[in-house]
Predict the structure.
Amino acid sequence: MGAAGLIIIGVILFGMIAGGIAQLILGVSKVSTMDWSLAFFSGIIGSFVGGLLHGLITQHRFVIEPSGLIFSVIGAIIVTALWTWFKKARASH
């Protein structure tokens, strides 16, 4: 496996961790009932959302730095909150 493969695996794992942290912060689930598919998708999409927010706020290009990682978790929180709101709104109708 080359360097690109390792980077992809690292992004996927970090995305899942960021999505899991978002679920815990929002109280959507506990560690024992973690929705890993939601964690995966909210983490990956949240990384893009957080990266865009980071770029808009700091006027920097997309580079990996600690503040970018923090914004990835913030993006995952936003995506998880929107997903749970949409799910509840759809269930009530």
Observations:
- Residues 3-91 form one domain.
- The chain is about 80% helix and 0% strand.
- Helices lie at 3-26, 36-58, 66-91.
- The first helix runs from residue 3 to 26.
